Amino acid sequence: MWLRRLQARRLPARITAAHCVRAGIVVVGVTGAYEAATYIHQNWTPSSSAREEGLVHIAALALSAEVVHKALHDEEVLQSLTIFGLKLLKEPTTVRELKRFGVELFTKDPATLAALKTFFVNDVIKDPWVKEELIDIVKELTVSARKDPAIYPDGVLQWLKVAALRALRGPAFSESLQRGLQSSGWVAFIGPPRKDIGFGTYYTEDSFSVPSLLKMPKQFSQ
Fold first, then answer.
1. Of the ranges 40-54, 58-72, 122-136, 200-214, which one carries the lowest mean pLDDT score?
2. Could you tell me if residue 143 is inside a domain?
3. How many domains are contained in the chain?
4. In a domain, 205, yes or no
5. Phi, psi angle pair for 133, to nearest 5°
6. Is residue 214 in some structural domain?
7. What is the gyration radius of the CA atoms in the chain, in angstroms?
8. SS3 assignment for the chain
9. What pLDDT digit, counting tens, does each position of 191-221 carry?
10. How many whole angstroms separate alpha carbon 132 and alpha carbon 145?
């Protein structure tokens, strides 16, 4: 029966332009519908893997938040962390590394040194209250030192004695004394030197002093 129907429906004698246009419209419509369905599926209906990744991410965030909340509010956990931190800080390696880091930070880092300098100069030294406190501290130390027999006058006199002996026994004082004696002998027996022989920078006939004599060059004092 279907063969008879197929034979009854005869194809047109020739394919016209209208047939081509209709066929093209059908093809374009089917292709557009397929592309639209694919776009909607990809953008509005996420895949199962994407949904699973999103759910896993949300679950991980919730779990981490719960763990942090419990850790920060659990007394046992806090006590354990405190003990661990104290033990870690008492380790020789940790103490040595912290000391090394602190020394490098406060002695070699330019930014830290500049910040400390600015802080002490602007915020500490120039502060009126700090100035008054420092003056009071110095006054109290001075008064207490003057009232202490071990410091004043016995301690001060002993310190001056030791300093004077060290200065007298030092090479600088001996050299200066020798140059001064030679210069004094020169002036006493020969007279003040003329400016044209190189002494004008140190001596003049009008002004003559011991400090200037001590500055006389060695080549003229021998």
1. 200-214
2. no
3. 2
4. yes
5. -65, -40
6. yes
7. 51
8. CHHHHHHHCCCCCCCCHHHHHHHHHHHHHHHHHHHHHHHHHHHHCCCHHHHHHHHHHHHHHHHHHHHHHHHHHCHHHHHHHHHHHHHHHHCHHHHHHHHHHHHHHHHCCHHHHHHHHHHHHHHHHCCHHHHHHHHHHHHHHHHHHHHCCCCCCHHHHHHHHHHHHHHHHCHHHHHHHHHHHHHHHHHHHCCCCCHHHCCCCCCCCCCCCHHHHHCCCHHHHC
9. 776 666 544 444 444 444 444 444 444 444 4
10. 20
Task: Report how far apart, in Å, the C-alpha atoms of 147 and of each of 133, 138, 161, 183 are.
Answer: 21, 14, 21, 46
Residue 7's identity, in one-letter code, is: Q
Neighbour count for residue 187 (Cβ, 10 Å): 16
**194 to each of 148, 199, 203, 205, 215, how far by Cα in Å?**
56, 7, 9, 9, 16
Residue pLDDT, tens place only, 133-174: 888 888 888 888 888 877 887 888 888 988 888 888 888 888
Residues with Cβ within 8 Å of 182's Cβ and at least 6 positions away in sequence, in order, are 216, 221, 222
Question: What range defines the domain where residue 189 resides?
Answer: 170-221
How long a stretch of residues is the chain? 222
For helices 92-107 and 75-90, give the axis angle rounded to 10 degrees: 70
Q: Is residue 213 part of a domain?
A: yes
Compute the C-alpha angle 155/157/160, nearest 5°.
110
Percent of the chain predicted with pLDDT > 70: 55
